[in-house]
Amino acid sequence: MIERDGARISLWQDTVPAFEPASVISKEKYDVVIAGGGMTGLTLALQLQQHGLKCIVLEAQNIGFGTTGGTTAHLNTLLDTPYTRIIKNFGMESARVVASATRAALQLVKDNIDQYNISCGFEEAPGFLFSQTDDQQKELEDIYDACVDVGVEVELTGAIPVPFAFNKAIRIPRQARFHPLRYLQGIAGVFEKEGGAIVQHCRVISCERLNDSGKVLKVETSEGNFLADHLVYATHIPPGINILHLRCPAYRSYAIAVKLEDDSYPEGLIYDMYDPYRYYRTQEIDGTRYLIAGGEDHKTGEESNTSGRFLKLESHVRSHFNVAEVVHQWSSQYFEPVDGLPYIGHLPGNPDNVYVATGYGGNGITYSHVAALLLRSLILGYENPYGEVFHPGRVKPVAGFAEFVKHNADVVKQLAGKWFSKEELHELAGLAPGEGKVVQYEEHTLALYKDDAGALHAVNPACTHLKCSVRWNAAEKSWDCPCHGSRFSFDGEVLTGPAVTNLEPAEIRSLETEEKMR
Ligand code: FES
Prior knowledge:
Layout: E1 30-35, H1 39-50, E2 55-58, E3 74-75, H2 83-90, H3 92-116, E4 123-131, H4 134-150, E5 155-157, E6 168-177, H5 180-193, E7 197-199, E8 204-209, E9 217-221, E10 224-233, E11 250-260, E12 269-271, E13 279-285, E14 288-299, H6 306-318, E15 323-335, E16 343-346, E17 354-358, H7 364-380, H8 401-408, E18 419-421, H9 422-429, E19 436-441, E20 444-450, E21 456-459, E22 471-473, E23 478-480, E24 487-489, E25 494-496, E26 507-509, H10 511-517
Parallel strand pairs: 1-2, 1-10, 2-7, 4-12, 10-17, 18-26
Antiparallel strand pairs: 3-6, 4-6, 5-6, 8-9, 9-10, 11-14, 11-15, 12-13, 13-14, 16-17, 19-20, 20-21, 22-23, 23-24, 24-25
FE2/S2 (inorganic) cluster binds near residues 467, 481, 485, 486 and 499.
Organism: Chryseosolibacter histidini
Protein name: FAD-dependent oxidoreductase
Keywords: 2Fe-2S, Disulfide bond, Iron, Iron-sulfur, Metal-binding
């Protein structure tokens, strides 16, 4: 099993072995360093390696650790941002480009699977979107018209494959589903065979030009420096401090995988129209079928009862399906672009050979492949029709951003040389095993967690990105930052950027032991 950025175990994690890279690492310059061993990073790496570039993927944890290990893996051309909104925000021509890019992305997945014989349960299946109120019906009719206008295959249908009452529905042919981690590990294996290198447990921290005149980049990582002609941040959100963090708020989404008593596993990828919406699909893994349902989304760090979201989702599924067993429950993160489309291309505020792909919303598998196609062209110097519509440079400068960053970017350190009494903290916090909370202790604020064995773990709650106070996520046993979505383990290790530095640890000592030692 591989590790993921939370305590819950996803269906995908539980059904793959750990990935052991077989790469030979060179200290010579690489053509491309890719930060992030998820769907975007490895798909792009393979594309570039096949074009003769020497690439290395540096993953801060293990490949698939981030949202690739927690997605529900819908491959769709019907996007979370409806084409009605894309047309309104970007115009008809751009919306047609988006539709064509998503179709090309699905084709790339299929081509990879066929060409490299990747066994990952891939199946094409239709998508369904259904309305249940008059307002939703009007919205659905507009979405149908917009799909027709931009060239997405779509038809009205009188039947949907889930047992819900509905007043109208559309069917979108040739969507798809697969096991994302089996696909990812397949791609990683081919990439290494083609001469590419993968390093796990190597966090990219920053980069700068090697010298003023040249274009070569010095990429600083937790395992030393690498030289490269290009750097791609395929880290879901770029690390450090960037204007894109103000344009991509972070959300959590919840998923469960259940076995049914009967054979009513729905064919297709199915979505209702509530906000947040719920989604359903079936996946067969090693001869066993699972119904996967998701939803209950909220902004990261803004829900105090994260475990309750699973209960709501489960109760909803049980009220419509004959559930025999809930096999897995897990949550994952996505970054929602404020204008509705991802940011793929040059990373604003960086040298022109530094790139980013972020803001996928709930369409990460599709957009990761759009990003692979687009970034491949940018790095190889080819024209690409998708370049303009996804260009991160479309973000307008924010007044005062530079001062804001300067003011907030001091290193967060308050606890050095201090220690806290274990007995007093136990009494003050009154935590049950497995619980965490932010507490005030004398003049200090601590993020305190009591593990299942009763031991306390304390860290400074000031997020190391821009100092917001983290909040406890009981479902995933993590400290989540409500400002830009950084997440940390219960003892402060970075799970999700943009932060690159762990939360400051606080030392806890037993008064009893201290006294005995005096
Ligand atoms: Fe920006 Fe925490 S993620 S302050």
